[in-house]
Amino acid sequence: MRLQDLRLLPKVRDSWTYLYVEHCKVDQDAKAIAFHDATGKTAVPCAAITTLMLGPGTSITHAAITTLADNGCLVLWSGEGAVRFYAGGMGETRSAKKTLHQARLYANPDTRLKVVFRLYNMRFREDLDTTLTLRQVRGKEGIRVRDTYARMSRESGVAWSGRSYKREDWAKADPVNRALSAANSCLYGVCHAATVSAGYSPGIGFIHTGKMLSFVYDVADLYKTEITIPAAFLAAAEGGENIESRVRRTCRDFFQEQHMLQRIIPDVERALDVTSEEIDTKDIDADAALPGGLWDPLEGIIGGGVNFSAGEVTSGRVDA
């Protein structure tokens, strides 16, 4: 996106506007920030964006970071075209409402299973038979992915003998398997950046578990058959030379064409059944200077930043 086209900024969702920049310098400009590139200077009010994604060739001053943080703008460091996620700063809010909602769904086996089935339903784009067991659903998913590989092999003319590669012996994998791994890595980066920017935890997965990116893998699986698998076979059809870099560029173009950043957050919230009643609870972080609420087994969340020493003290403990 050209810096001059700020009026065309896409929206990740109605309340999440992002800006991706590369090959420029970002510094403070009064109470806003400004981008300097080969075309000149472009000033941007921090209130206009909630997520700033810094791509290759960018540098940013300490003053600019301070201004963005003071205005609640999340800063992400990413790869070209936002296809990798390297690091992130403080977001628009100090609230953990979305993470806590995600954790509540995860912690209850019944609600976790509902999320798992919603994720699978979204992959199939149809309602699954409610009498199916989770093992049966996984079997259907395996057939769907296998058929996608077979179809792309026929369409591209690239031979397919199954998913097989080893990180420690990367060069021995065939070109299409190397392309698939590189493409999936790009997809994980985009999904990671989007979920973090929206306030969800990348480690609290529902289908996947045990990894710091388990939820990223859950989300990324929604898009593999339409993006990374076709991209990998298209790249492999052109030969094996420099296939990793070529498939990354193909993925970057696919992400832009299919408006991935605009799609991911609505899909995540559909999977997590996000409603205003569940998320828009009492805002315990209305004042960012306060430490937040305190959990109580009887009263729920009570106010933080309060000295409870005036309460009754029994057995060396203070009862609020």
Keywords:
320 residues; alpha/beta; Ribosomal Protein L15, Chain: K, domain 2; Four Helix Bundle (Hemerythrin (Met), subunit A); 2 domains; five-stranded mixed sheet; four-stranded mixed sheet; 10 helices; flat; disordered N terminus
Structure description:
This protein starts with 10 loop residues before the first strand and ends with a strand. With 320 residues, the chain is α/β, with parallel strands linked by helices. Helices cover 41% and strands 16% of the residues. A hairpin with a 2-residue loop joins strand 12 (312-314) and strand 13. The strands form four sheets. The protein has a five-stranded mixed β-sheet with strand order 1-2-6-8-9. A four-stranded mixed β-sheet has the order 5-4-3-7. The protein folds into two domains: 3-88, CRISPR-associated endonuclease Cas1, N-terminal domain (Ribosomal Protein L15, Chain: K, domain 2); 97-271, CRISPR-associated endonuclease Cas1, C-terminal domain (Four Helix Bundle (Hemerythrin (Met), subunit A)), CATH 1.20.120.920. The radius of gyration is 23 Å and the shape is flat. The chain has ten helices and 13 strands. The protein has helices at 62-70, 97-107, 109-124, 134-156, 175-197, 214-220, 228-237, 243-257, 260-271, 276-279; strands at 11-13, 16-21, 25-29, 32-37, 40-44, 51-54, 59-60, 74-78, 85-88, 294-296, 300-302, 312-314, 317-319.
